[in-house]
Specification:
alpha/beta, 2 domains, seven-stranded mixed β-sheet, three-stranded antiparallel β-sheet, 10 strands
């Protein structure tokens, strides 16, 4: 790929997805985009880039952006965030939302759905404590292809072996040939919707819990700052933000404050804390849903 074509691609990706592609990642772009070029009938990446420059290339631009988007995900990834969700975040919200008995959860950049379904299974394992409650899980992603796979809820043997406890596999999945399909009970707990994190978040509503993990690492600093600020605007004052293990708000945003024993877990800086007393409230829930990891 010629340097000027690579520079154009970097600008395009930054504008459309926020992805900050470093100069040394040219090899990655070439390996991921050559299949896109062949599918479109082009022999070279130069021809592909030339077509992307045209105003009538929106469908091709979408394919290119999706091809360059990282979709690495797995069930119960990193485990600790799900343990915090079950033993600290949820007890705090059950106490704070006792009058309305309604909690909204958002999984941003959900990819093929494993994170959202992991939360749904964790909630289902705590069914006794949540009877009479309405729990909404919204999962969004830039990629229409990834969302299609997420809605289908069917995963390969390799995918279900990555992080999913065997007890949950047996309980909530049915084997269909070489794939495992998640039960309608769990699938119906999650609503999938296409959304770009660079777009306005206001139409999505407000949330008690936001999972936005392993997304900011692909953005440059101004984009990270902008996204964190806008996430704070749609979080409830005593809500929670769960970032990835390698992500932080330090030096990026004063809209969030870390929780005491933070594992990339934050609350809005301007709101009231839900943390006080959470450990005590967690006692009655800590032994529920242990199969969820």
């Amino acid at each position: 790929m010629m340097p000027m074509d690579f520079d154009f691609l970097r600008r395009l990706l930054k504008e459309r997805s926020g992805l900050a592609l470093s100069p040394e990642k040219r090899y990655l772009a070439e390996s991921r985009l050559m299949p896109v070029a062949r599918k479109a009938g082009f022999d070279t990446l130069e021809t592909l880039i030339s077509r992307l420059r045209r105003k009538d290339s929106e469908a091709l631009v979408t394919e290119v952006v999706e091809a360059m988007t990282t979709r690495e995900t797995l069930f119960y990834r990193d485990r600790t965030p799900f343990q915090l969700f079950r033993e600290t975040v949820l007890p705090a919200l059950l106490a704070a939302r006792a009058s309305r008995r309604h909690i909204r959860i958002w999984c941003a950049a959900c990819s093929t759905g494993q994170e959202a379904y992991s939360l749904a299974m964790a909630l289902r394992e705590m069914d006794a404590a949540l009877r009479g409650w309405r729990i909404d899980i919204l999962a969004t992603d830039l990629s229409a292809d990834a969302l299609s796979r997420a809605r289908e809820g069917a995963y390969s043997q390799f995918e279900v072996q990555r992080g999913l406890p065997i007890l949950l596999l047996i309980k909530y999945f049915t084997q269909e040939g070489e794939r495992w399909r998640i039960s309608p009970l769990i699938r119906n707990m999650v609503r999938f919707q296409q959304h770009n994190l660079l777009d306005s978040l206001t139409p999505l509503g407000r949330f008690d819990v936001i999972f936005c993990r392993n997304v900011l690492i692909y953005f440059d600093m101004p984009t990270k700052q902008d996204v964190l600020q806008r996430l704070a605007a749609v979080a409830e004052p005593d809500g929670f933000l769960q970032l990835g293990a390698a992500e932080t708000v330090v030096g990026l945003s004063d809209a969030w404050r870390p929780t005491p024993e933070s594992y990339a877990l934050y609350q809005p800086a301007a709101g009231r804390s839900s943390w006080a007393g959470a450990a005590e409230r967690a006692g009655r829930l800590s032994v529920i849903g242990k199969a969820g990891g």
